[in-house]
Amino acid sequence: MAHPLQPPGLPITNESVLHFYEWLFAPWVKDLGLRDFDVSPGRAVATLPQSTRLQFVSGAVCGQVIMSAVDTVASMAMATTNRVPKGTVYQHTHFLRPAMSEDMRVEASVLRFGKSSAFAETKVSFVGTGELVAHATLEFAF
Q1: Which one of 87, 109, 122, 127 counts the least CB within 10 Å of its CB?
Q2: Distance in Å from the first CA to the final CA of the chain
Q3: Which residues of the chain have pLDDT under 50?
Q4: CA-derived radius of gyration, the chain
Q5: Residue 101's pLDDT is what?
Q6: Shortest CA distance to 140 belongs to which of 86, 93, 94, 77?
Q7: What is the SS3 assignment for 124?
Q8: Is 61 helix (H, G, I), strand (E, B) or coil?
Q9: DSSP structure class, residue 140
Q10: What is the rounded distance in angstroms from the CA atom of residue 52 to the CA atom of residue 69?
Q11: pLDDT at 23
């Protein structure tokens, strides 16, 4: 089945970020509920809201959810540049505390472009307190 949306123009901006998000990502990624997107060259930010659908029985958000949000927002940061890569080839995530009871801010920054890859850093923190929940570094291939 053909995709119903046309690809957005790149690099993405705040005016096109929602179109890009709808166009590129799989339905299960959208089920994470990411919202409040804000992008600028080399940077992307989104809110990951708390949801019982994303939590373990303990109430902590599942690590796979956080890693998916990290990869999604970092991919969006890459798409704000003139050198959009083909995809993520490496992601290393440190979990610093349980993600409980509060929405999270996911902020990704492009660090550097090489000949065949690009690098990004993503920080996940609680919206209200600013406490760091997770930190990730990612590599993208061209």
Answers
A1: 87
A2: 27
A3: 1
A4: 15
A5: 86
A6: 86
A7: strand
A8: strand
A9: E
A10: 16
A11: 95
Average pLDDT, the chain: 95
pTM: 0.95
Q: CA 70 to CA 49: how far, in whole Å?
A: 13
| Three-class SS state of 111 | strand
Segment (H or E) for 70:
helix 63-78
Count of beta carbons in the 10 Å neighbourhood of residue 67: 17
Residue 83 gets which letter from DSSP?
S
Measured CA to CA, the distance from residue 115 to residue 99 in angstroms comes to 36
Q: What is the DSSP string of 6-58?
A: PPPPSS--TTTHHHHHHHHS-HHHHTT--EEEEEETTEEEEEE---GGGB-TT
Beta pairing partners, 136: 93, 122
**pLDDT of amino acid 84:** 84
